Amino acid sequence: MRVTEVRYEGAPPVEGYGPGFFRIAAQIHRGPLALMPSGVVPWTGLPDIAPFLAEAGRFDVLFLGMGAEIRPLDPAIRAALEAAGVGVEIMATPPACRTYNVLLSEGRRIAAGLIPV
User: Fold this and answer.
1) Which pLDDT tens digit goes with each residue over 23-45?
2) Predicted TM-score of the model (pTM)
3) Is 18 exposed, middle or buried (0-12, 13-18, 19+ CB in 10 A)?
4) Confidence at residue 26, expressed as pLDDT on a 0 to 100 scale
5) Is residue 85 over pLDDT 60?
6) Could you report the per-residue pLDDT of 88-102, keeping only the tens digit for each?
7) How far is 24 from 1, CA to CA, in rounded Å?
8) Which of 29, 69, 80, 102 is buried most, with the most CB atoms less than 10 Å from its CB?
9) Residue 113 contacts residue 71 (beta carbons within 8 Å)
10) Which of 71, 24, 73, 33 is nearest to 52 (CA)?
């Protein structure tokens, strides 16, 4: 079997996560986190969508990791993001991290809002 090293262009991938934290670029970040095309941005969590609206033209899809389990998104928040041209995918945080990393490795225009598990 041939193993190919994955390369990430631009934003760093999620290297790990656990109760209350994420590891990005060998640094531990506690609490909610926004992974944007411009880099890692502190985020207070929902309903704050300002970081995503500020960079809406730089990504096509936003993955929202809602914690340990999937939760519904307030329809007004979804409407505001979609009005800004952002597609929104809601999932639990672990699959949101994995999906973000895969699409990032493909060079896709993505962002993620991650709430710790």
Assistant:
1) 999 999 999 999 999 999 989 99
2) 0.91
3) exposed
4) 93
5) yes
6) 999 999 999 999 999
7) 29
8) 29
9) no
10) 33
Place of tokens 């090293």: 5
Q: How far apart are CA 29 and CA 17, in angstroms?
A: 9
- Report the candidate in 31, 22, 12 with the shortest Cα–Cα distance to residue 111: 12
* Stronger pLDDT, 11 or 15, i.e. the higher one: 15
Residues composing the chain: 117
Instruction: Please confirm whether the linkage preceding 47 is cis (ω < 30° from 0).
Output: yes
Q: Are 117 and 19 in contact (CB under 8 A)?
A: yes
Q: What is the 3-state secondary structure (H, E, C) of 10-49?
A: CCCCEEEEECCEEEECCEEEECCEEEECCEEEECCCCCCC
Residue 117 and residue 21: Cα distance in Å, rounded?
8
Tokens representing residue 9 in the block: 């262009």
